[in-house]
């Protein structure tokens, strides 16, 4: 809250009052101390909490060294008074006012003291602290901040501690101030942000650090020798200490060696995957070479094999692995499984490159440890194995105890989720002893948290459940990484003494002392504990925040992991500082501190290492068993000379490299399975459940732990699905959590606006040929509101996805209408990028249209608003029968394509075309050869520059994200080019007018944008997009009431009226997977697993009930198994601990006759299936189909046009009796002022579904519904792709995606929260989340 927004009249203080001993304003001088206080005093006259303050002016106050006696008890009493005061202020606004008042009376802090050395690290606002020790040995503090609230926090601290002895200041702990959180001074509900609550903690730490230094100076103790470090600025790198100098020497590599390596890699098509812990010389060369040869990837161990597969896909014939042996073994096995056995994999040494941690897991003692888990009969066991172990270990242990692989990023959520799903589970973690002990310590700390705090870490746990799981969590006691083992007590002591106010980073594998230190820093926003990638991401985020503050700042990071990380860190930081230097001239410097010990060389036991010496610097700052080790000796066996040797000898002299080649596993497990098959099975936590558990545990353990490649292991589970609609996570791992993740708190790389299909025309409203309402004049208002929104959000640019005016616009008005819309776009304060659509070309030829849209030359182009991201705009009408002159080659080519592919006289009709061939209609087009070559060059260039690419096209590029009739003609050829490169993350499109989304087999997200044209008055369809390092975050305003700002209102603060689960079209059958008649894959058995996960999710969320939208089993289910199959599915629904409401679908009726009705619309009331042959409803349906569908196969729409295509046998109608019942129900609901949700297996609006899936008499049903304004949402199934629309009366229609068509490991189900003014669908995977605001 801004200070200017608060009236400060009548604010008083009950803390700084006469009842306390005098609190003089501190000055710094030699004793005796005389302080003159001219205009204000901390000794206030009024203690009444709500009366105005009467201030007394003191002319002079003389204070001697004995005059102020502040004991620790007195200081703590002051803190308690603060707590009681803020507790008495129940209104948060009053608390803020009190803080701002304390800020006003904080003694003046001179501008001369606002220097970098006085800055307090870790605070969002600028905070300065000046500390001195007076002649009596008492500490004197002055503080200042550019934030009034932060300044108020500082005032409280200074008031409590000023005048205390050094010993008393140092005796204070953060916990002594912890009680302030109950007074609303800490983040959480009703409080302030975590950055605010961290302020007092970080200021206290700085007070204590500077106090320690003054005590040492007073006692004549020499200052401790600083750790070696590298200081990075926009101008260069400075090394402090010989070890840092050794590291820095290779940060600017020899360009001759770089070019030599690049030439070899490029000529011989060799890819390189390397671990972060490489030798600095190797990393320096590889980092520079990456800019010239994109097939080099430096990362942690998790994604090395996946990167190798991507390299094989783009044509690499060899992959070199710079890491330990288990990494190269894994790369070899994964490449084989991905279908690239011909790609050679090479290690970097002719000797064994071991790993102390992997060796520990391969020892007999580890198998003995797991045998205890296997022998458990009373409760199931799960082995959670750290990823840094060999394939052989993973394979063998899996046959002892069901095994799932974790990373340091996700081990905590994995274990918590496992315990949540199976309460009596025993978890056996290994082999890393320190990580196991740290997990146990973390859980111990959680037992001291409130249930609310625990739920923020994992929603299904509380204090009681954490306490109950701890005895059942076991960890191996004899496995350590030699690098992290060496972060011992000497390092911890030195960090505590000299670096306690620095940012602290630590790998999850460090010993307990270091872990505790890092966790304490993390709690106050000054640290990170996790994987190497977590550490890199944390440093980058802090640097970006500093650049955004636009002030001089020095950031200090203690690097609590292997020193090889420094190359990637320095490169990333230097790039950020170079590209993000504030325009006001502010300078940001970043210091990377190596916490190595005082001994230079470590001798290691011969039993544990082949190398007798760990490489270190020669003078005073290397490694020690008492401190941190800067290097892993195994990783340093990967030298640049070895890499060059391997590259020079490939491919001709492969025989000379036999000792370097990564071997294949031909051995089998005790159960007769290949080690490679079992060991590299996709068992990363969150992706899969253990397969074939041993007989002692018949129960399969299925985990739902959400996993990204790199997440903070302690990151809170966010309720982001309540805040946004779509987030596309780049390189997103398949899991069955929601695709939506919270991007709040991060600074986007770039933000931009999007809108599609405005199709303005100054004509009366009409309908599409499918009957969907179109609002030709209102669409201009939608654009105007979009422009206002984009200007308010200050997005960098806007993309218009085509069809700027409508084809029905009178031709004499085409030019003026286009200029009118372009004029509205010009009101945006930044650049607008246009693309052309079919409706544009109906109105104006290209030579007139392109200049109006500020498009020079080709209608395809690319641009990079920031160095990290490139946008590629395609021209989908490059080959088209519209827009080009009569004899133009591109027009003639399009006409030939249509003649060949579409037999209809009307080339805009897809009649008779089935599946994807329906795209060959005149209103679509294709990308030409020249444009295709250009696209390939652009993506190749983007790959070299390590850019993320967003492809934009008016026409969609994936059939699962749109209707077949809206696809680019040669979408397959375009996507074949796109898939050659891993740089393309998202494809955005318009044209279809309906929302659509899918992620393709290569992990590329396809998002089709809804049309502005089809927004009823008062609603909108436009969006703003934030692109982050790893995700694209879309806030989409769609058909929402204009009374809500931007159409987006979060429901987080509200409690829903009711919550329920939804699933549609399970269509289970115990038969092999197949395909629909349109060629879409169907997973008949997996759909039952989707249902099981849905039931668990609904139970965990404690929804009130669940709705099954029909088609419980599939029509291909053998008739003799129908009853058993449907009973099996019903039994799975029975595991849900609430009522389940079912409705019937056509597939249900193919198997079993209708015997009962359900409390929803029965779309097969009039139907040729389900009723006896002589039933009146059957006869009525048969006659209806005879009249409406001339085909002998009544399931075929051949010859039917537009809305007639719904008259198929697998659809049905609502009968007269049911129609009367519906009318009565809605009339009654209106009287009771109820909001109504209509549920029907068959969709009720052509805008939300394919025509072929509609209820026969949907228009009659909607005529009844539209008589009343109580119906807010219509939910349906049947059309497996899903869809959404808002009809002319403001009713939302949401068709749910099918569980049947979820590939293994994915889901389609959801949870719905209904509020007074909206319905919020939170979907899993394929089921898109959507907020539907009720129209009044």
Automatic annotation (TrEMBL):
One of its GO terms (cellular component) is chloroplast. Residues 752-994, 1060-1281 form the Calcineurin-like phosphoesterase domain. It is found in: Plastid, Chloroplast. It catalyses: ADP-D-ribose + H2O = D-ribose 5-phosphate + AMP + 2 H(+); iminosuccinate + dihydroxyacetone phosphate = quinolinate + phosphate + 2 H2O + H(+); CDP-choline + H2O = phosphocholine + CMP + 2 H(+); CDP-glycerol + H2O = sn-glycerol 3-phosphate + CMP + 2 H(+). It comes from the Eukaryota. Involved in the biosynthesis of pyridine alkaloid natural products, leading mainly to the production of anabasine, anatabine, nicotine and nornicotine, effective deterrents against herbivores with antiparasitic and pesticide properties (neurotoxins); nornicotine serves as the precursor in the synthesis of the carcinogen compound N'-nitrosonornicotine (NNN). Catalyzes the condensation of iminoaspartate with dihydroxyacetone phosphate to form quinolinate. Its EC number is 2.5.1.72, 3.6.1.13, 3.6.1.16, 3.6.1.53. Residues 83-209 form the Fe-S metabolism associated domain. GO terms for biological process: NAD+ biosynthetic process. Keywords: 4Fe-4S, Chloroplast, Hydrolase, Iron, Iron-sulfur, Metal-binding, Plastid, Pyridine nucleotide biosynthesis, Transferase, Transit peptide, Zinc. Pathway: Cofactor biosynthesis; NAD(+) biosynthesis; quinolinate from iminoaspartate: step 1/1. GO terms for molecular function: 2',3'-cyclic-nucleotide 2'-phosphodiesterase activity; 4 iron, 4 sulfur cluster binding; ADP-ribose diphosphatase activity; CDP-glycerol diphosphatase activity; manganese ion binding; quinolinate synthetase A activity. InterPro entries: Calcineurin-like_PHP, Fe-S_metab-assoc_dom, Metallo-depent_PP-like, MPP_ADPRM, NadA, NadA_sf. This is Manganese-dependent ADP-ribose/CDP-alcohol diphosphatase. Its cofactor is [4Fe-4S] cluster; Mg(2+). CDD domains: MPP_Nbla03831. Monomer. Belongs to the ADPRibase-Mn family. Belongs to the quinolinate synthase family. Type 1 subfamily. Transmembrane segments: none annotated. The keyword Lyase does not apply.
